[in-house]
Design a protein that fits this description.
Elements lengths: L3 H8 L3 H13 L3 E3 L5 E3 L6 E3 L6 E6 L2 H7 L6 E6 L5 E5 L3 E3 L4
Parallel strand pairs: 3-7
Antiparallel strand pairs: 1-2, 4-5, 5-6
Helix pairs in contact: 1-2
Length: 103
């Protein structure tokens, strides 16, 4: 992906605007920084369907540093937190799972 300077020149925007665009894409887990400060578009993992059990609640939250390391998540990818009626809680990376409601 082009640098902020290149984007600014190519599209006639300020470098600050281009930097903010990079930051947004990074916060959404769509790009990462590579060695030498280059931006690389992140390959999106294949999505799998997640149907929560009846009575479960689902929330979304940012991943902790430890969760990002354990799940190999880039910055910005949220977690889906499924709490089942029995008290069990499971987390799913939102870039790999999509919620599917029964019926």
């Amino acid at each position: 992906m082009p640098s902020a300077r290149s984007l600014a020149q190519q599209y006639g925007i300020t470098r600050e605007t281009a930097t903010k665009a990079h930051d947004i894409l990074r916060s959404e887990g769509l790009v990462t920084r590579a060695r030498g400060h280059a931006w690389v578009v992140r390959e999106q993992p294949e999505m799998r369907d997640l149907t929560p059990p009846a009575g479960a609640t689902v929330t979304a939250r940012p991943a902790t540093e430890l969760e990002r390391a354990e799940l190999d998540l880039p910055d910005g990818v949220p977690l889906l937190v499924v709490a089942d009626p029995g008290g069990g809680v499971t987390v799913f990376p939102a870039d790999r799972w999509r919620l599917v409601w029964p019926g």
